[in-house]
Amino acid sequence: MNQQLNDYSQAVSQYIENLPKDGGDWLVAQRSSAAERFTEIGFPNAKIEAWKYTGIEGLLKQGFETTDKLPEFPEHAVLRQFLEEPVAGRLVFVDGVYQADLSTCDTAGITVGNLRSAMAASDRAVLEVIGSLSGMGDHGFAALNLATVHDGAVIRVTSETCLEQPIELLHVATKSAEGQALRSRHLIMLETGASANLIERYVALDDAAYFNNLVCEISLAAGAKLTHQRVQLESPRAYHLSDIHLGLQADAYYHGINAAVGAAWSRTLIHNRFTAQGANCELDGLYLAGDGQLTDFHLDVDHAVPHCDSRENFRGILHGAGKAVFDGLIQVREQAQKSNAHLYNANLMLSRHAEIDTKPQLVILADDVQCSHGTTVGQLDPQAVFYLRSRGLDEQRARHLLSLGFASEVIDRFENETLRLQLADVIRQQLQS
Amino acid sequence: MMLSIKNLTANVDGKEILKGINLDIKAGEVHAIMGPNGSGKSTLAHILSGRDGYEVTGGEIHYKGQDLLSLETEERAQQGIFLAMQYPVELPGVNNMTFLRESMNAIRRSRGEEEIDAVSFMKLVREKADSVKLDQKLLKRSVNAGFSGGEKKRNEILQMVMLEPYLAILDETDSGLDIDALRTVSDGVNLLRSPERSMIVVTHYQRLLEYIEPDHVHVLSDGRIIRSGGKELALELEARGYGWLLEEAAA
């Protein structure tokens, strides 16, 4: 392991060394600190509670490398299927590389661009925010992300702008992603009173094995409102790690709707520490895991100030030998009176070989609060299966319909109809295979 | 013959519930099965629909000439058997309209027919929902989830009129219904009456039979049919209760 860490540290130093030094601000100081942080903490292991059920041996064994290899670019026609939705702005990344010609933004009040350009142009307004919500990284992968970040999205919505159409952040993985560690860092900033709908999608054109290592910082100024629809449909051999850090100012509202369906191994952390009153954070999520899949959601909501609301509703379907981990932590600090915090996690087990490790945690130190949490792990109701069969559906179809019904409570939360239909389709396909 | 039951015996949890049922139902006939609680009425209805948890220990059931007991639940439905349930199941997240359409198409596919197209389906379901006075809004909701007792029963009848079964079994459909709902449910049933369709109406009370006039009435007690007659038998039961019949049977 130590040898492996040394190899990584050396590769990181090399990477920082090779950054273009002529012009621009390549965040060298932050990168170097993050590299030190990585050397200090290394990779997470099973002794760390948050990683107890989410092994990384398989991921490390793959030996994914950070290269600057450009993707073998797919036909535009193949990509077009992903670009049909009308949007206020769109950023497209292929194998982690920004595609300016596929990206659009001609809407007043928003700017979308990529982090690499911001670094090349020494854009202080962007660069100063990098790391402000995420820190250096709570685990080795996040530290590596900051140390060697290649590119990412930068989205800004100006004060009081209300967008009708969504902004889309699309990641496409191709076969040339094989063996690569892709690392992107996204920065979403909504100014005072702005309101937007962000679609973030991860799709694959091939079944390549790659590692998507992502950090996303989302900053909502006072009264800003963001609906964030996030769909992970990575390749079945892919590894996907997302750390999402939220910063909500007074009366800001964030609604995250998440679906994790693809990838062999995926982990999503959503972290929100309330630091201003009147903010509201709602998180919905759906995960599906079958043979050879592990999916993990970690939620960390910290009520550090009074008068904030949080609601979390996550549903999982486990089939075959699928494995899922759910860890939802809500902390309500002593001074955080009048907090509302509710957490719910439901799991549907379609097979005896599936596994779920679910851990809702509520730590409440204030006394005038409304909080609840609940977890269920269950199977399909035999009465319901019989009911459908008595109306002519065969058992398999009955089970699929009921499973989709279970998922629909979260699917229906997606505002975008295309996403809803696509998710229902993918779930149907996965359950049939 | 639509349905022929010969000397049917069945256990639930090792306990004998049906102790030799004999019943013949011709196409076009409506049979009422009455009897006190615990007599085996619902057990019989469930066995006909293929529900798990019932062990048939003897006898035969023939439906349109074939061995019914060898058919899976969905095959029975595909071949035209419909059970309107006493306690319709709630299916959270399963859209009522999707459910109806899936059912209709499953039955059509099994018969080698084309699936119904979306436009024709919508037209049909709206029209049929009106005919059973089911609020159109409930079509867009999850199946039975949060429906009142009456709405659930109307929804059962809607399924029945959509699926047009050959043999409809109504298991205590009248329980928990007010007079208005009872009338609507009965109207739905009467609408379906035809020379090629048969019905079994399982009920505890005579009340339902004021609206659905049976051709034959059978009284089930302790797992046996102890008396069969015409619709006047139901009236007699209404006037005299079950006691005299049970005493006669015991004598």
Report on this model:
The complex is a heterodimer of chains A (433) and B (251). Chain A has 433 residues and is α/β, with parallel strands linked by helices. Chain A has two domains: 2-276, no CATH class; 381-433, no CATH class. Helix content of chain A is 23%, strand content 38%. Chain A has ten helices and 20 strands. Chain A has helices at residues 2-17, 28-41, 57-61, 76-80, 115-120, 124-127, 140-148, 382-389, 395-411, 417-432, and strands spanning 89-94, 97-98, 104-105, 110-114, 153-157, 167-173, 181-190, 195-204, 211-220, 225-233, 239-248, 253-260, 265-274, 280-289, 294-303, 309-318, 323-332, 340-349, 355-364, 370-378. The model of chain A has no long low-confidence stretch (mean pLDDT 94). Chain B has 251 residues and is α/β, with parallel strands linked by helices. Chain B has one domain: P-loop containing nucleotide triphosphate hydrolases (Rossmann fold), CATH 3.40.50. Helix content of chain B is 36%, strand content 28%. Chain B has eight helices and twelve strands. Chain B has a six-stranded mixed β-sheet with strand order 6-9-10-3-11-12, with helices on both faces. A four-stranded antiparallel β-sheet of chain B has the order 2-1-4-5, covered by helices on one side. In chain B, strands 7-8 form a two-stranded antiparallel sheet. In chain B, a hairpin with a 2-residue loop joins strand 1 and strand 2 (15-25). The two termini of chain B are 33 Å apart. In chain B, 46% of the residues are buried.
